């Protein structure tokens, strides 16, 4: 009994230390300008105010960046699903020449970090006229090898008899995918959608490179630029951090089971 | 049957086609082009007019080897790998063991709380930590002052800046590895540990002789993933220190970004990218080799 309390108390302490920076971020975002820069650092706002958020959305036009982030992440998610789900299923369940060799090449390509090709990719998109556009920010999400991999792993457990029965009934392959396979895949599709949405929302280096026009900035790019100009405005920056990270944090908390299960499915093989 | 097989083959290529084409154009081609680009003097003039482009063989690589900042960046990245990898792996393993403890109540709650930093936006939490690590008003130094230590000029001193960033990186990423470790720990039979306990083995002896051997492949997997992640640090120094002070946090990737997109030396930047790839590959292969010799896999 003693032991149970000790371990749980220790876990509670570690958890508190872990989420303390996030709690502090929320708390400071409601402080009056300059309030956080004191010794000892205050933990709670003296009189909570929305001033920082008002300034963020009023003076600095954060609504625009929020909309950009929502647009890019939503489109990235939809496109990634359209490209990777059928491919993952085909690699698992359809027989065609060259399938296994192609898949082995894809797995080998997983070792190559995406940053290696960033400079040529930039030149390539420049030639295609896609630099400084939403399309340019979306491009890397079309080439999601990891997503194909994840969907394939999941599809391997679909019984072949189910597909054969549909084929004997005269259903085409497209119909089988839509009517029979997709309903079975719902959990992994939710997981993959969550992965892509969160990673594209949090992505920084590529949008920083490809989006030069400030009006196209996503939240992380805008926040990084703002924080370089306003190093002293502690409270304003915390409001910006809250607006940037709270949406994905809430999304994760709501769908955490899908996220954690998918993470294990992906890492066991990776 | 034959017609069925043919229609399956056609469907197979239709379904994989779009993804394969996208991977080819936006991933394979740029990665391969990176190597070709590294043998050219692609710069701002070539960007304006491709006619200015020349093949210069290995000259980009030669120049990099003579560039002190490149060596500084490489040394910094190796330091991040050498110090950061054991730090993150140990941190994650202890977190996993704590959450896996059979005396723990409300396990799912603690698991989610410890994992939460991993899903937050890197830029946002890097900004938060920049203030937490502030010399005068930061919470970290305040806590240190309570035990009579500090104050440490975390982000302003060339010796403290790298540990400061690692502190943040550890906080941000240990939850991910913890989940992987947790899955491995759950496959270790409780009876095994119980038997060792009855034989009088202490906590550390059980960890060393029972738990660690059982999860060795996972320790290796997590180390490989962490090494790769440490080589790819960019956002953290970009937001928290801008590579400073005294270039103490310029990483290889940060150097590549500046070379390519600040100075528009794309040929030289591509050479950096290729060297980075070789580093990641080499370390991964060495670790796999060691594991094979040790019988972990």
Summarize the helix and strand pattern of chain A as letters. Answer: HHHHHHHHHHHHH
Question: How many domains, in number, for the residues of chain A?
Answer: 2
Shape of chain A: globular
Reported for the largest beta sheet of chain A, the result is:
none
Low-confidence stretches of chain A: none
Strand element count of chain A: 0
Query: How much of the residues of chain B is beta strand, in percent?
Result: under 5%
The chain-level structural class of chain B is mainly alpha
Level-2 CATH architecture of chain B: Orthogonal Bundle
How far do the termini of chain B sit from each other? Answer: 42 Å
The helix-and-strand class of chain A reads mainly alpha
List the helices and strands and how they pair.
The complex is a heterodimer of chains A (270) and B (297).
Chain A: H1 2-29, H2 51-58, H3 62-93, H4 99-109, H5 118-127, H6 134-138, H7 145-155, H8 160-168, H9 173-202, H10 205-210, H11 219-229, H12 234-254, H13 256-269
Chain B: H1 2-37, H2 44-48, H3 59-66, H4 68-100, H5 107-119, H6 122-132, H7 139-146, H8 161-185, H9 190-198, H10 203-214, H11 216-231, H12 235-240, H13 252-262, H14 266-294
